[in-house]
# Entry
Amino acid sequence: MTNEFKTTHTPVLKKLGFDARAEKNIDQGERAISLATGSYLVYKSLKNIINHPLMGLHGIAAGGYLIYRGATGVCPIYTKIGKDTTDPQAINITENIVVNAPRTKVYEFWRELANLPKFMTHLKSVEETGYGGSQWIANTPGNLIGLKWNAAITREEDDTYIGWQSVEGSMIDNAGKIEFKDSLNGTGTEIHIEIDYFPPAGTIGRGIASLFTGLFEKMIREDVQNFKLYVESEDFKHYAGLS
# Structure
């Protein structure tokens, strides 16, 4: 019976994409969610199958599919479309904003890296360690993972450019640059910002990457846009001697 099942049904399952020996394409976080959701769906469907047999059967099938992807780490749909959530995904932020403040003052504020957490909520602190070095600590959604890394200034030009990159061996790879130039009306500053975060490889990296694909990336984008609001606040005006 067992051999007959294998002979008859295994090719059919593989045709549908169900092959537990296939390469895993779901990260640990998504697998856990699939298992929990699938188990709950099967439980609820079994309870209702007498009163609603068709809906119950559909629910059991859907729950079984979720349990399969959670248990094996293989998603047949992902396989067909070429998606793989086990590979750490980088965050790439590119923004252009214009702020109503003199270029020199805006540059000086950014160059004092300890100022960044004042408007960047995804950063808990940035501490300069001397000789262009700094230590960065991030606020992650729910503070589930503590992210800390060291970085160094890679290039700087007074009032026009700052570039930085995390040092080798850091828990996370981070790089960025910011360019400053006078706005067309000559009273403000045009800023071009590029920030990249690359989670490390391996299990820890996949865990960090699961954060990157949602709230953390949203936090960073909002932080960049928040700088315009911060420049117009009394805190910045006091810092820059404009009030």
Q: What stands out?
A: Residues 91-240 form a domain with the Alpha-D-Glucose-1,6-Bisphosphate; Chain A, domain 4 fold (CATH 3.30.530.20). The longest strand covers residues 147-157.
